[in-house]
Amino acid sequence: MVKEMFPRTIAHGYSFCNRTDEQEILLGHINSGNHVVLIAPRRYGKSSLSHQVTERWISPQSKRMGVGISLYSAYDESAAVQLIVTGAQKAINKIMPLMPDMEAIQKFLKSFSGLGFEAGLKTDGIGFGIKFDLERKSAKPLDITSIGAILTKMDDLAHSLGWKIVFEMDEFQEIASLKHGKSIEAQIRDAVQFSVATSYIFLGSNRHMLEQMFTDSSRPFFSMCHSIRLNRIEAVHYQKHIGDASRVNWNTEMDIELLDLILSLTERHPFYVNSLCHELWKQEKVPVRSDVLDAWRCVVEDRVLPLRSEFSHLSATQKAILNNLADEPEKQITSISFITKLLLPTTTIKDGFRQLQNKDLVYMNDNGAWAVMDPCLAYDLRNQRNPQEL
Ligand SMILES: Nc1ncnc2c1ncn2[C@@H]1O[C@H](COP(=O)(O)OP(=O)(O)O)[C@@H](O)[C@H]1O
Ligand SMILES: [Mg+2]
Questions:
Q1: Ligand 1 in contact with 19 (CB < 6 A)?
Q2: Domain boundary at 198, 229, 260, which?
Q3: Helices then strands (H, E): number in the chain?
Q4: Does residue 174 form part of some domain?
Q5: From the CB of 268, is ligand 1 less than 6 Å away?
Q6: Which single residue of 83, 107, 271, 277 could bond 43 by disulfide (Cβ 3.0 to 4.6 Å)?
Q7: Averaged pLDDT for residues 180-202
Q8: Which ligand is closest to the CA of 7, given by its number?
Q9: Same domain, 327 and 197
Q10: Domain annotation covers residue 355
């Protein structure tokens, strides 16, 4: 059995399907020292793409390193600062031992005094590195202005010794919900703006918030980064990817009808393609149609409760729109036929639809029609009214 062919976590190596163009664009930006924001709905493959490209790029021989932090647990300013500083510390620790002499190291450490952090040497018995004292023993309020300085020092150090860094910040939108989030954004912006050896990659699971942070002209990150938007992976790439996995696992071709069934049930949503295939690839024999349908029901059963709960909190208008789009995607939500189906005023439909867009509950499919983002929710909504769907 090929265990990691269809992971439900980050896809990498042979579990990574295509995204050739996006990989090259991201790699090009990193090589040019540009900063990037990856924008896509959750579970479309932002982390996987960033990881795949960074892994390709990293090379200790060529003095290229990657550091990644996730801000999902940044519940307050000091937690956010701690996460960012820990990321910078990781990078500094890789480079600092390569400094020419102890005097240079001591000077570097001293330059942190006054930033609100105590920087000292630590040793693990093999090598040594920098350690910031983040346990704030004094009652002094946390100095957010230190973040920019620490990131800049990391960049200076890398530059002085010929290193390049990719610094990935996942769940970056969490910063925006903090009370002093704007100050932290401004600090990071300063470091990003003047960095010479570091490329920053920003990503996050809340597309709407992230988009606002990077495209609103009043926000610190406006026009600071190149954006890369991810769509669903094209059918032709998935057919090859899943077909190859079939040959590896069962030494046989999978019928094209079966491949198409997998892609139509999951609507090529990367998370659901992997969830369904993960179930199927547990089988001893190459699956037949009924196996695919059974496995899809298992996936739906596994996923549907939180989706129903999210649905239950929507307004009546939003529910009505989703129900209709689950039945039939719609090119023009203000068309007479759609309004007639919903029996609601156009402005009400427009408002409800905009809220659904902001919550990433709808997306435009390949035919240019609006559809329900989550194929499992769409299936469940249809199945509630017409249980014979499968
Ligand atoms: N290029 C890809 N090839 C195959 N599977 C992928 C690809 N990108 C993402 N996936 C799968 O999709 C799901 C979500 O991926 P992830 O990178 O965590 O998305 P995001 O960071 O956008 O939330 C995971 O199951 C992952 O394995
Ligand atoms: Mg992610």
A1: yes
A2: 229
A3: 15, 9
A4: yes
A5: no
A6: 271
A7: 94
A8: 1
A9: no
A10: yes
21-53 pLDDT per residue, tens: 999 999 999 999 999 999 999 999 999 999 999
Ligand 1 mean position, distance from CA 272 (Å): 10
Provide the 10 A C-beta neighbour count for residue 202: 29
Domain boundary among 229, 249, 273: 229
Query: Which residue lies with its CA nearest to atom 8 of ligand 1?
Result: 45
Which atom number of ligand 1 is nearest to the Cα of residue 270? Answer: 12
**Residue 205 alpha carbon, nearest atom of ligand 1:** 23
DSSP designation for 136: -
Which range marks the domain in which residue 287 is found?
A: 235-313
Residue nearest to atom 9 of ligand 1 (CA): 45
CB-CB contact of 207 with 360 (8 Å): yes
- Ligand 1 pocket member 43 (CB < 6 A): yes
Residues 149 and 52 in one domain: yes
| 170 lies in the same domain as 196 | yes
Considering the domain architecture, whether residues 350 and 287 belong to the same structural domain is answered as no
Given strand 64-70, what is the order of strands in its sheet?
Answer: 64-70, 164-170, 198-202, 36-39, 226-229
CATH of residue 376: 1.10.10.10
Q: Is 129 helix (H, G, I), strand (E, B) or coil?
A: strand
pLDDT at 2 over 50: no
Same-domain status, 102 and 224: yes
Q: Which of 348, 109, 72, 302 is nearest to 203 (CA)?
A: 72
CA 273 from centre of chain: 17
Residue 155 shares a structural domain with residue 299: no
Pocket of ligand 1 contains residue 42 by CB under 6 Å: yes
The ligand whose atoms approach the alpha carbon of 17 most closely is 1
Residues with CB under 5 A from ligand 2 (ion): 47
How many domains, the chain?
3
Probe ligand 1: pick from 271, 273, 302, max atoms within 8 Å of CB?
Answer: 271
What is the rounded average pLDDT for all residues in the chain? Answer: 91
Classify 245 as helix, strand or coil. Answer: helix
Asked whether residue 348 falls in the same domain as residue 294, the answer is no
Could you count the other beta carbons within 10 Å of the beta carbon of residue 278? 17
- Answer yes or no: is the C-beta of 205 below 6 A from any ligand 1 atom: yes
Whole-number Å distance, alpha carbon 385 to ligand 2 midpoint, is 34
Domain co-membership, 305 together with 156: no
Task: Out of 70-84, 100-114, 127-141, 153-167, pick the least confident.
Answer: 127-141
